Amino acid sequence: MTGRIQTFNDLIVSLGAEQVAEIAHRLLLLPAAARLTTSEAAIYLRISPSLLRTMRWRGDGPAYEGRGRLVRYTKASLDAFMRTGAAAAKEAA
Question: What is the reported pLDDT for 3?
Answer without folding.
Answer: 61
